[in-house]
Amino acid sequence: MQYRLVQRKGRKFEATWNERTMRHGKWRTIQKWISLGTNDPKEAAEKFKGFVDGEASGRGVAFSRLSEVLQEYTAELLARNTSHHNMKRHHSIVRQLLTHLGDISFMDLTRQDTKQYIRSRGVKPQTASRELDVLSAALNYCVQEELIEWTPFKFYKVGSGVRDRYLTQEEIDHLLDACQSYYLRLWTLIAVSTAARSGAILGLTADRVLFDDNIIDFRDPTIQGRHKPRSVIKMPTGLRPYLMDAIDKSQSGYLVEKNGRPLTSVYNEFRKTVDRAGLEDCSPHVLRHTCAVHMVKAGVPIYEVSSYLGHKNTKITQDHYAKFQPDFMDKSSEVGSSLIANPKMRVIQ
59 phi and psi, to 5 degrees? Predict the structure, then answer.
C-alpha cells in the first residue's frame, strides 16, 4: 500500500492512502487519511515514517480520527444516492467539523468538546448544534458497522426553539409585489400557499401536479435514504392557475426553473426580494411557518395542519402551533380569572 505525506491548505500534515473495501456488494477504492497533528515539516516527516512503519505510538491504528469517521459516513451517504442538495449541505457542514474537530481522536472526544464547538464556532448556537448532529450520526453509523468501538454519549445541544415570526397578509402582499423574476414569484406563491420546504418546491416536477385529482405530490421518488418528510396535499384553488401556467412554460419538466433549467437554490434572490419588500427577519422557512400559523388561526384542526406540513406525528404540530388556535387555553384562562374575581380592586403600594 502506498502512503503519501501531504498538507492541505489550512490543515495539519496528513498521511493519505488508497484502500480497497467492499461496499454494498462491490469493491470500491476509497481515499483515507489520518492527521499527523503538526504543521512542522520535520516533525511531520518523523511521524509519517513512524506511521508507515506502524511504530509511532498511537499512530499504528489507521482508523482513529474524527476526520476518518466523517469520511466513512460521507461515503455511505453517497452510496445511498442522497440528493445533491442534501449532499451539498452535508459537505459544507463536514468542512466546518474537520476544521474544528478533525484532528481529534474519536476516543478522546468529550461532551466538553461539543460544548466548546458550539461556543467557538462563530455562528448561531442552534446552527452549530445542528452541525454536531452530523458528527453524532457519523459516529453512530461507524459503531453500527463495527468500524470503531466508541461509547456513545449525549452531545451538548442547543435547542432551535420555535420561531414566532410569521408574515401578516399585508407583508405577504409586499413580498409578492417585490418579486422581480417569474421563477421567484412562482416559488413564493407555492411556498406561502402549500407550506412546502424550499427543496421540495424546487424538486417539484409537472408529473406530480395532478390537476384531475386536484393534488400536489411533493414526494420525490428519486430521493433515497433519510430525508425530511414531504406531503401530498390538496391543491390550493388560488394556486391552480399559476401551476398551469408554469407547466405550460416549463422546458425542463420542473415547475421552478430559470432559463429552461431547474434551480438548486433561490436563497440569494429571496434575500434581495425580502430587502426590497422592507421586511425583517424573513427566511424561506418563515413562509412555511406563515402558512401553518394562518391555518391554525383560521381554525383548521391540528391533525389536518400536521398532514399538510408533512409532520411525522401531530405532537410536533401541537407543540409548535397550538398557541395560535382561536380557543387556545380559553377555559384555563377563565378559571384562572375566576380565582381572583371576588377581591375588591385596590392599589398595591
Answer: -110, 0
Mean pLDDT by 10 residues, the chain (349 residues): 78 75 59 75 83 51 74 85 79 90 83 92 90 93 83 82 81 97 97 94 95 94 73 95 97 95 92 95 93 95 93 88 89 87 64
d(CA 152, CA 143): 9
Report the interhelical angle of 267-277 vs 182-194 (nearest 10°): 80
Closest C-alpha among 15, 14, 37 to residue 103: 37
Rounded to two decimals, what is the model's pTM? 0.64
Question: What does R_g of the chain's alpha carbons equal in angstroms?
Answer: 26
Compute CA distances 182 → 188, 255, 284, whole Å: 10, 11, 17
- The domain limits of the chain are 3-144, 169-324
Question: What whole-number distance in Å separates Cα of residue 82 and Cα of residue 331?
Answer: 48
* The three cell numbers locating residue 108: 478522546
Fold of 169-324: hpI Integrase; Chain A (1.10.443)
CA distances from 68 to 104, 106, 238 (A): 10, 9, 51
**DSSP secondary structure, 15-39, as one string:** EEEEEEEEETTEEEEEEEEEE-S--
Could you tell me which residues are beta bridge partners of residue 257?
Answer: 262
Query: Which are the contacts of 332, defined by CB distance < 8 A and separation ≥ 6?
Result: none
CA 305 from chain centre, in angstroms, equals 21
